[in-house]
């Protein structure tokens, strides 16, 4: 019974830590959006395709694992070879 109580207490501590971390991450989201919005002119000036890459990665994450692996390898080769 003592070990069970310890495990329950440990589980509750971990759940509280996860909730706190999730709260901090949720609070960061608007700030990150603001940073990306503020750097938009710089990205355009330097011809960075960050928005396109982000959209592509978001779409690729929906692929089944074998196709995602193929995509990841092809993207890595494209980055290396230019």
From TrEMBL:
BP GO annotations: mRNA export from nucleus
Localization: Nucleus
Domain of life: Eukaryota
Alphabetical keyword list: Nucleus
InterPro entries: THO_Thoc5 (IPR019163)
A molecular function GO annotation: mRNA binding
Annotated GO CC locations: THO complex part of transcription export complex
A Pfam family it matches: FmiP_Thoc5
Family note: Belongs to the THOC5 family.
Protein name, as recorded: THO complex subunit 5 homolog
UniProt source species: Cupidopsis jobates
Lineage of the organism: Eukaryota, Metazoa, Ecdysozoa, Arthropoda, Hexapoda
């Amino acid at each position: 019974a003592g070990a069970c109580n310890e495990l329950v207490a440990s589980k509750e501590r971990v759940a509280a830590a996860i909730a706190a971390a999730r709260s901090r991450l949720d609070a960061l989201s608007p700030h990150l959006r603001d940073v990306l919005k503020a750097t938009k002119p710089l990205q355009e000036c330097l011809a960075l395709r960050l928005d396109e890459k982000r959209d592509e990665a978001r779409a690729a994450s929906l692929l089944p694992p074998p196709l995602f692996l193929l995509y990841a390898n092809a993207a890595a080769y494209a980055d290396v070879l230019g």
